[in-house]
Amino acid sequence: MTVSSIELLGDPVLRTRADEIVDFDGELRTLVRDLWDTMEKRGGAGLAAPQLGVGVRVFTYHCDGHAGHLVNPSLWLVGEQTQEGLEGCLSIPELDWECRRYRNVMARGWNMHGEPVEVSGSELLARCLQHETDHLNGVLFLDRLDERTREAALREIRAASWFDGTEPVVKQDPHSSFR
């Protein structure tokens, strides 16, 4: 079991688009195991490689009765229905806020052996797949919060014991339909 430290808000790796994985080798399998062990030990629903400081496109997930990992995932939103719900992040520890996400999604990618994988989910699994795919694109769930909630979140972050004083960068929410 290898439990790694998790990069916190402010680390540039969390705001950088991760690179595609081209080698499905032992190094990737070790990374997937490290992601899994760290996610499970820290009590997360998912964990993306950038959160361990590794800028490649892979994440693990274990929520709502589903568990696995996706390498180089692509995400499709299924329908227009959205959901509001509490969302947190291991890179923004001990804090969560109401966040709007799409209710149904489908993700396609590969497993650590290079075999195709497809995962469809709704509710919590859909939220998790969106959250982790966002990490691979340098997007944090703070970017998805409505303006009022985001302002409150930033105040709470600045008051958190782990906050290092670096002003958090917030990107424009790419879900224009949520505005």
Task: Give an account of the 3D structure.
This protein is of the alpha+beta class. It has a single domain, classed as Peptide Deformylase. The protein is 25% helix and 30% strand. It is built from three helices and seven strands. A five-stranded antiparallel sheet has the order 1-2-3-6-7, sandwiched between helices. The chain has a two-stranded antiparallel ribbon with strand order 4-5. The protein is globular, with a radius of gyration of 15 Å. The mean pLDDT is 94. The active site is at 132. Its EC number is 3.5.1.88. It catalyses: N-terminal N-formyl-L-methionyl-[peptide] + H2O = N-terminal L-methionyl-[peptide] + formate. Belongs to the polypeptide deformylase family.
List the helices and strands and how they pair.
Layout: H1 26-42, E1 46-48, E2 58-63, E3 66-77, E4 82-89, E5 92-102, E6 104-110, E7 116-122, H2 123-136, H3 147-159
EC number: 3.5.1.88
Binding site for Fe cation: 89, 131, 135
Keywords: Hydrolase, Iron, Metal-binding, Protein biosynthesis
Our Rg estimate from Cα atoms comes to 15 Å
Strand content: 25-35%
DSSP strand count: 7
CATH topology: Peptide Deformylase
Structural class: alpha+beta
- Identify the CATH architecture: Alpha-Beta Complex
| Largest pleated sheet | 5 strands, antiparallel
Topology order in helix (H) and strand (E) letters: HEEEEEEEHH
Distance between the termini: 43 Å
Q: Spans of 5+ residues with little confidence (pLDDT < 50)?
A: none
- Helical residues, percent: 10-25%
CATH superfamily: Peptide deformylase
How confident is the prediction overall: mean pLDDT?
A: 94
CATH structural class: Alpha Beta
Summed up, the helix count is: 3
Shape: globular
Widest β-sheet, arrangement of strands: 1-2-3-6-7
